[in-house]
């Protein structure tokens, strides 16, 4: 899972980044709203931690909802005022956590929101005959056990979590290719080809000029919030 954290406080932001990274999450931390907007426009994330809960932060949240974005959002706020809470939820927040908070509670709320939004229990990803147990990197297709490299496993879990959404080449390169998108080699294509060979045809589909997608069964093509979730194609 890739989380975008917007937090202006240096100590708190760094602490949250470290703690969530230790949980196996990819955390992109920015301190300014303008950097957050740029990150949302040019990348892909699965959850937003919005630590700037003033009017600018809420305007960003409201704009995401107007654009029909289903991106899960947790507000991190110093205010325990009921009116501020209600305003955050009315603007489209999924959860609200008051600072200072205990990190284990933040982890628990992140996991709960991910389960509600993506149907991911934090350990196992299943799609048709394919199953990935994330902590052990154990992959099975039907009754057949599949051995994957660390990079292949990371690519597969990224695609499964975002099933039905196109994941851009940039995002996949940043996650699994040494040097990220600055790597001019065809390393990503080699990883994808090896992954297809190991898990079989019919799972990973190429979206030419954009990236790759794993199509989920038809019942999951409509988001739980009733919107079609959009993905940046940068």
H/E element sequence: EHEHEHEHEHEEEEHEHHEE
> What fraction of residues sit in β-strands?
15-25%
Strands in their spatial order, largest beta sheet:
2-1-3-4-5
Number of helices: 8
Q: Report the structural category.
A: alpha/beta
CA gyration radius, whole angstroms: 18 Å
Q: Alpha-carbon distance between the termini?
A: 19 Å
Rounded average pLDDT: 82
Helix content: 40-55%
- What is the overall shape? elongated
Low-confidence stretches: 219-234
Reported for the largest beta sheet, the result is: 5 strands, parallel
What is the total tally of β strands?
12
Report on the architecture of this protein.
This protein is 40% helix and 21% strand. The chain contains eight helices and twelve strands. It has helices at 10-22, 33-42, 55-66, 82-91, 103-118, 150-161, 169-176, 187-199; strands at residues 2-6, 26-30, 47-50, 73-77, 95-98, 124-127, 130-133, 138-141, 144-146, 167-168, 204-207, 211-214. The two termini are 19 Å apart. The model is unreliable at 219-234 (pLDDT under 50).
Task: Supply the key terms.
alpha/beta, five-stranded parallel β-sheet, 8 helices, about 20% strand, elongated
Topology:
Elements: E1 2-6, H1 10-22, E2 26-30, H2 33-42, E3 47-50, H3 55-66, E4 73-77, H4 82-91, E5 95-98, H5 103-118, E6 124-127, E7 130-133, E8 138-141, E9 144-146, H6 150-161, E10 167-168, H7 169-176, H8 187-199, E11 204-207, E12 211-214
Parallel strand pairs: 1-2, 1-3, 3-4, 4-5
Antiparallel strand pairs: 6-7, 7-8, 8-9, 10-12, 11-12
How is this structure best summarized?
This protein is an alpha/beta fold. It is 40% helix and 21% strand.
């Amino acid at each position: 899972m890739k989380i975008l954290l917007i937090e202006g406080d240096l100590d708190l932001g760094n602490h949250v980044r470290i703690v969530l990274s230790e949980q196996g999450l990819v955390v992109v931390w920015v301190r300014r709203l303008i950097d957050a907007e740029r990150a949302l426009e040019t990348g892909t994330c699965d959850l937003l931690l919005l630590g700037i809960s003033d009017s600018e932060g809420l305007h960003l949240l409201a704009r995401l909802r107007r654009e029909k974005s289903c991106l899960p959002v947790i507000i991190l706020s110093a205010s325990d005022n009921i009116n501020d809470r209600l305003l955050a939820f009315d603007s489209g927040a999924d959860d609200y956590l008051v600072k200072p908070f205990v990190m284990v509670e933040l982890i628990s709320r992140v996991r709960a929101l991910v389960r509600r939004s993506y149907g991911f229990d934090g350990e196992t990803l299943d799609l048709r005959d394919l199953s990935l147990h994330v902590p052990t990197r154990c992959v099975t297709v039907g009754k057949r056990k599949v051995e994957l490299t660390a990079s292949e496993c990371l690519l597969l879990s990224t695609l499964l979590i975002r099933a039905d959404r196109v994941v851009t080449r940039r995002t996949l390169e940043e996650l699994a290719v040494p040097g990220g998108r600055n790597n001019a080699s065809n390393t990503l294509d080699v990883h994808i080809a090896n992954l297809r060979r190991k898990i079989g045809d019919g799972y990973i589909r190429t979206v030419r000029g954009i990236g790759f997608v794993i199509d989920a069964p038809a019942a999951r093509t409509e988001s739980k919030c009733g919107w079609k979730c959009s993905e940046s194609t940068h």
